[in-house]
Design a protein that fits this description.
Length: about 150
């Protein structure tokens, strides 16, 4: 799925979601039909952990030149791994980063071939709820560059 200039926010979000969906779901054999392992929004209904959310949370950019309508955009994403255990959170976070890092230059399925350039990790921060039943999460801020034709 190439990221197109008229639908770049949705295209990029779905592309990243689909890449991350290749990470092994530890409970795939028992996950209910109404639960998703990778989602593009915070859950509003029944949730089974672990899960991963992908959200485009910021866009910034500059024009390509003085007489151009083209733009060089930076798309910032929050990828959040949610789990009931810190070990599982850490393993899934590593798997997500490995997948995104290693799927850049694949001939037809990589991020570059689909118009997403310059993958970078800005931060990875743990956000843990207190208590025995608290949910553990890691919020990863990543970004890609997108060139939009004028």
């Amino acid at each position: 799925m190439a990221v197109e200039s008229t639908t770049f926010i949705r295209d990029a979000t779905l592309f990243i979601r689909d890449l991350i969906a290749t990470v092994t779901d530890p409970i795939s054999t028992t996950r209910g039909s109404k639960s998703k392992f990778v989602a593009t929004a915070y859950p509003e209904r029944f949730t089974e952990y672990p899960m991963i959310t992908v959200i485009c949370d910021n866009i910034s950019g500059d024009r390509d030149g003085m007489r151009s309508e083209g733009m060089n955009l930076s798309l910032d994403f929050e990828i959040r791994v949610w789990s009931k255990s810190t070990k599982q959170r850490d393993t899934l976070s590593q798997d997500v980063l490995t997948t995104l890092r290693t799927k850049q230059i694949d001939a037809s399925t990589g991020s570059i071939a689909n118009n997403l350039f310059g993958f970078s990790l800005g931060s990875a921060v743990n956000v843990d709820e207190p208590g025995e039943n608290g949910i553990h999460s890691r919020v990863m801020s990543i970004s890609y560059q997108v060139f939009i034709d004028g």
